[in-house]
């Protein structure tokens, strides 16, 4: 019995999106003390966890939080990449991977939006 069927999630893609948003939120909360508690990282983490919950329970409003995160993360990543240019390569790679995964996840959720109704 697979994990997706035990959690009553129809597709593996949705399960991957739920896990992505949950892990991103947790990592952002872990990064808070190391970055001197900036509020924007906490807000992105909270919205990520809310999105993971909304996708798990199949709420229609989770599409709006996905789009909101897409816009916020794109702006955040552009700012980080511009101001951290060649200072910390590992951090820049992490930001680019986070940005790419956010775009892929938003495109997947927006194409499968018919399955969000309970």
Which terms summarize this structure?
mainly alpha; 5 helices; 118 residues
Describe the structure concisely.
The protein has helices at residues 3-6, 12-31, 39-56, 62-83, 89-111.
Walk me through this protein's architecture.
- This protein has helices at 3-6, 12-31, 39-56, 62-83, 89-111.
- The protein is mainly α and 118 residues long.
- It has one domain (9-113).
- It is elongated, with a radius of gyration of 15 Å.
Strand composition percent: under 5%
Tell me the Rg in angstroms.
15 Å
The secondary-structure element order is HHHHH
Number of helices: 5
- Taken from the alpha-carbon principal axes, the silhouette is elongated
Distance between the termini: 23 Å
Would you count the extended β strands for me?
A: 0
Biggest beta sheet attributes: none
Instruction: Give the class from helix and strand content and strand pairing.
Output: mainly alpha
How are the SSEs placed, and which strands pair?
Elements: H1 3-6, H2 12-31, H3 39-56, H4 62-83, H5 89-111
Helix pairs in contact: 2-3, 2-5, 3-4, 4-5
């Amino acid at each position: 019995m697979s994990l997706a069927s035990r959690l009553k999630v129809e597709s593996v893609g949705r399960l991957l999106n739920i896990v992505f948003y949950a892990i991103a939120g947790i990592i952002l909360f872990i990064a808070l003390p190391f970055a001197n508690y900036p509020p924007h990282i906490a807000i992105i983490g909270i919205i990520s966890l809310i999105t993971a919950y909304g996708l798990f329970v199949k709420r229609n409003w989770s599409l709006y939080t996905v789009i909101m995160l897409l816009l916020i993360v794109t702006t955040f990543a552009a700012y980080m990449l511009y101001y951290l240019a060649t200072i910390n390569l590992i951090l820049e790679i992490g930001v680019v991977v986070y940005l790419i995964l956010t775009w892929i996840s938003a495109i997947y959720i927006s194409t499968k939006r018919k399955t969000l109704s309970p």
